[in-house]
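We now fix the convention by which a protein and its fold are recorded. The integers have meaning only within a learned vocabulary of local backbone shapes. A complete example follows; check for yourself that the lines match position by position.
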Amino acid sequence: MKPVRVLIVDDSATVRGLIRVLISRDPNIEVIGEAADPHEARSAIKEMNPDVITLDVEMPKMNGLEFLDKLMRLRPTPVIMVSSLTSKGADAAIAALEMGAFDCVAKPGSGEQEQFGETLLAKIKAAAGWRMRGAPHRIGDLARAPVQAQRPYRSDGRIVAIGASTGGVEALIAVLSHFPENGPPTVITQHMPGAFTKTFAGRLNRLCKPAVSEAFDGAPLEAGHVYLAPGGAAHLRVEGVSPPRCRLWKGEPVNGHRPSVDVLFQSVAKAAGPRALGVILTGMGRDGAEGLLLMRQAGASTLGQNESSCLIYGMPKVAFEIGATQKQAPLNMMASEILRATCAV
């Protein structure tokens, strides 16, 4: 198998060197070049035709978002954004994912280099696999497809629990943007660096009719409210019945993730049983599959995103293979399926 050819684009020689050292440890990864700014990167891309690009969000001469926009229009290539853990960096990372970046990682703090390297390697390999399959339509394209018209909606009270990872930013926008203002009470675990989830929740709140926010401990699950698990610090669980509430649990990572989709789904299976709907969207790995199976065994309805509309058909594939999903649906039909299943009228 040919190694994945990577171009590193970052204005910091220190960061370029760190990325090069960390990913070069894998014999299946080859760093073919480095660039200190988008102008150098443009020349390197034309000359070397990399399989994957790591791209700093903030650089001189032309920022990473401007460069990404030009790249996606003129020479689509899998790009992994490397962002600082600042508010500005988080805003840029979310914008980049909407514009077509494959995924994003946060620049490491002290003592986080090894974890950063492992995360980046996994994302590079997934991005290369996406390109080798011919890079199917971007989720954003599918999100803009027409959605089947809905009858007037009134929630039947069932909780909707959604799990997503790579590709989830666009997928969640595609789904939630079609929810009505009084949409079903919804909880979401999206694999994302801790500094980014508050920004993403704010973005969803501006784009969608329901109220969207980061989950907080004790938040009541009611119609018209959507809660996104805070990244990094805790798992999101659901407990109680009148009404059920969000609980933040500072347990160890599960399946390598905190928050974990499995933890969310398992709690919903226990708290709500048949009064819930579980949805698993695009993402790497298997997090959420076992939890979704528990939801189905507890009487909940379950949905999975189908392969053709997934950026990464990993989590939904495992869920389908173990019998956790009752039905698979394309992304542009997912909102319709959810609203149909949870409508009281």
Residues 113-132 form the longest helix (20 residues).
